Model the fold of this input.
Amino acid sequence: MSITALNPEAVHADGTAMAVLVVDDDPLIAGMLRLVLESEGYEVSHAEDGRAALETIRETPPACMVLDMMMPHVDGYGVLEALAADGGARTRVVMLTCCSQEEDVRKCLRLGADEYLTKPVDVDFLLHTVRDLLAMAMDEVRARRAAVENDESVLTERVATTLGRHAQFLAG
Done:
């Protein structure tokens, strides 16, 4: 699909929209995310659970996935584990969940999530996060994942940054 996007960063060099997969079992949240992401020019698809997300990724890997944690059938952890077992994702992963405990953040980043955002989410920050991830070459994304996996201090810093953002957002 070739479009003229409001955000030129939402398209590939050939003019086709970058694909973003929204994985959330809540239709209201999924619909809101679709509207926000499509308004920026992304081509958005939806999977209502982790099993459907894995099928979609195997058929047509999106450039980015916004992934909820708690879903039926296969949860967010299961999706990340399956992607890791498949040799590492070709898809950038933004966790978007109501889980804000340190152990959840730590586990998701270790399993290959690239960013971890908590609900409620500031949509401008979500869009900024998606744009930044999509601007990175996959080699750079893989290097960031490896640094988190192999260096406890990098993981600890990423977890602290994530939890600090969440606390700051809630404080207003």
User: Anything to note?
Assistant: The first strand starts at residue 19 and ends at 23. The helical segments are 27-39, 50-59, 76-85, 102-111, 123-135, 138-150, 152-171. The chain has seven helices and five strands. Strands lie at 19-23, 43-47, 64-67, 92-97, 115-118.
